Amino acid sequence: MTITVRELVHYPVKGCAGTATDSVRVVGTGLAHDRTFMVVDAEEGAFRSQRTHPAMAAIKVTVLRSGAVLALSAEGVEPLLLEVDVDGPRRDVSMFDRPLGAAVDQGDTVAEWFSEVLGAKSRLVRAVPGFDRDGWGETPGKLNFADAHAVLVTSTASLDDLNARIAARGDADAVPMDRFRPNIVLTGKDEPHFEDRVRRMTLGSVELAHSVRATRCSVPLVDQLTGVRKGPEPVRTLATYRREAQYGNRVSFGVKNAVVCEGVVSVGDPVTVHSLVTP
Questions:
Q1: Pairing of strands 263-266, 23-27
Q2: 279 confidence band (pLDDT: 50, 70, 90)
Q3: Residue 47: helix, strand or coil by DSSP?
Q4: Which helix or strand (DSSP H or E) is residue 100 part of?
Q5: Measured in Å, how far apart are the chain's first and last C-alpha atoms?
Q6: What is the mean pLDDT of residues 217-221?
Q7: How far apart are CA 222 and CA 235, in angstroms?
Q8: DSSP secondary structure of 235-261
Q9: Which of 46, 200, 209, 236 can bridge 139 by disulfide, Cβ–Cβ 3.0-4.6 Å?
Q10: CA-based torsion, 9, 40, 249, 213: positive or negative
């Protein structure tokens, strides 16, 4: 069967809602506009995420004018159009207690907006021009404000298998793919988690290389439409068959990839696998 691209999603503000697209340019740090912005603690500069602020999931973000403007909306507040400051005042930021250096603060108006939505004093920052951050793993690559890698790939076969296992337990509903916040969803292959075995692949004119399996935290417990943490699925069922001993026995779903050839990818594009390891 032919493997094709089923979905493409970028997340302009780390931790906030994703934006689906039919076609996108992929640069060295991932899908264009993906995780270029980040919400941080107003005092310490530490990143905010759905781990502690699940309401971020329901904050909708639209990139306008090729990234010059962000349209922000959330339940219970007035929407906001933000004129992006690419090279303004800097603020030191960090992720997982690791300094990332300076980022461009986007001003008081949007800071107050996010503070109201999240109920915690926050600032919005953008990656500085020329931001240079390394990933890690088999092929490290570069990235913006994603956790550690440029592109997260999942497959419909993996989700179907997970939901069949959840259904067999008889006490929980199926989970949608957005719980895993992928950038690229593949379809056309019946083997669950075949994406784990792919080491190099071409999608459209983009080539990706394997970095590491995607271990999961508590974010898949968050309903991405409402911003409310539900649980215990899908993590409970994943724990029965997707433990990763080399990563502290955390569960995994999907694969993180580095960009080795920039280009354009579209929904429906065939996927050519160049390198595949045996199970």
A1: antiparallel
A2: confident
A3: strand
A4: strand 98-105
A5: 19
A6: 95
A7: 11
A8: HHHHTTT-EEGGGTTEEEEEEEEEEEE
A9: 209
A10: positive
pLDDT tens-place string over residues 170-213 = 888 999 999 999 999 999 999 999 999 999 999 999 999 999 99
pLDDT over threshold 80, residue 1: no
Per residue in 60-94, pLDDT tens? 999 999 999 999 999 999 999 999 999 999 999 99
**Contact criterion met (CB below 8 Å) for 136 and 211:** yes
- The values of phi and psi at residue 164, to 5°, are -65, -40
CA–CA distance, 113 with 80 (Å, rounded to integer): 8
Cis peptide before 234 (omega within 30 of 0): yes
Q: Is the pLDDT of residue 223 over 80?
A: yes
Give, in degrees to the nearest 5, the angle at Cα 247 between 245 and 248: 75
Helix, strand, or coil (residue 44):
coil
Paired residues of 102 in beta bridges = 92
> Cβ-count burial of 160 within 10 angstroms (0-12 exposed, 13-18 middle, 19+ buried)?
middle
Taking the CA of residue 177 as centre, how many other CA atoms within 13 Å lie in the half-sphere pointing to its CB?
Answer: 22
Long-range contacts (CB closer than 8 Å, 24 or more residues apart) made by 89-92: 90/128, 91/40, 91/45, 91/123, 91/125, 92/45
Give, as one character, the DSSP assignment of residue 118: H
Q: Residue 94 is encoded by which pair of tokens?
A: 């960090």
**CA–CA dist 2, 125 (Å, integer):** 41
Q: What percent of the chain has pLDDT over 70?
A: 100
d(CA 252, CA 240): 11
- What six digits make up the tokens of 64? 């306008």
The CA-based angle 250-251-255, given to 5 degrees, is 110
CB atoms within 10 A of CB 230: 16
Residue 1, CA atoms < 13 Å, CB-side half-sphere: 9
Using the structure block, give the residue that is written with the tokens 């010059």: 68
